[in-house]
């Protein structure tokens, strides 16, 4: 029973982390579309500059 509870907790945490990652991605895209610099977007979303550059390249 304890193993089941631990696994369910892990699944919930993974779900939350995945949701947060998707939200950061969506926010980064919106900020880039608004004309913010890559550095500002990285700072606002806590993503790395490299991640934001990749997002920007995918939008182009």
Question: Can you describe what's shown?
Answer:
The chain is elongated, with a radius of gyration of 16 Å. The chain is mainly α. Helix content is 85%, strand content 0%. The chain contains three helices and no strands. It has one domain.
| Unreliable sequence segments | none
The number of distinct β-strands equals: 0
The total of helices stands at 3
How confident is the prediction overall: mean pLDDT?
A: 93
Helix-strand topology string: HHH
The dominant shape is elongated
Level of helix content? Answer: over 70%
Integer count of domains: 1
Element layout with pairings:
Blueprint: H1 2-33, H2 38-45, H3 49-59
Helix pairs in contact: 1-2, 1-3, 2-3
Describe the structure concisely.
This protein is mainly α.
Give the key terms.
60 residues; mainly alpha; 3 helices; 0% strand
